[in-house]
Amino acid sequence: DTAVSQTPKYLVTQMGNDKSIKCEQNLGHDTMYWYKQDSKKFLKIMFSYNNKELIINETVPNRFSPKSPDKAHLNLHINSLELGDSAVYFCASSQDWGVKGYEQYFGPGTRLTVT
Amino acid sequence: DAKTTQPPSMDCAEGRAANLPCNHSTISGNEYVYWYRQIHSQGPQYIIHGLKNNETNEMASLIITEDRKSSTLILPHATLRDTAVYYCIAPGLDSNYQLIWGAGTKLIIKP
Fold this sequence. Notes:
The complex is a heterodimer of chains A (115) and B (111).
Chain A: E1 4-7, E2 10-13, E3 19-25, E4 31-37, E5 43-50, E6 53-57, E7 64-70, E8 73-78, E9 87-94, E10 104-106, E11 110-114
Parallel strand pairs in A: 2-11
Antiparallel strand pairs in A: 1-3, 3-8, 4-5, 4-9, 5-6, 7-8, 9-10, 9-11
Chain B: E1 9-13, E2 18-23, E3 33-38, E4 45-50, E5 55-56, E6 61-64, E7 70-75, E8 84-89, E9 105-110
Parallel strand pairs in B: 1-9
Antiparallel strand pairs in B: 2-7, 3-4, 3-8, 5-6, 6-7, 8-9
């Protein structure tokens, strides 16, 4: 059973388009995250949701809008895609927020390429 | 966050123990040390964490020095599949409960 899954795995699109990435976890966790890993391989937190409520929003452009329909799902919608959005996006989950949030489980990633 | 320092890369022979060091000299008394790894083209994977006592699980052992200023992750019998980037993270009270990821150590297991 896949604990944290993301779709699609690869996404190639043109500048200006709008796209979504979906994430689902079957671990029963309360907290979910979106990370961006750029070409330099540094992982940076983008958003975090706890019990469907946004708790972290790290200076991400307004073009990025997360949405958590329930505790098991956290989707990421990106408007007006730009070349600089090309990266690998990882979804993760943890049992809870706070100290329990340091033990995170990651999805396989979505490689987004904007042309 | 306690700043962590790791060597950028290391090699280890297959079947031998891989010892990955991490320096966290500014760690405070209640800050844990977490280890993750990222195998190429995969998401990061949680390995182990500890506070002051040595810890062991099915993946690895974590040895934390008595002064807590450094730690070593030990993969007892490294295999080719252990080739990955290993991250040592010491999230602090000022991190807003976020993991702050550095560059990690690129561990290459050689046959």
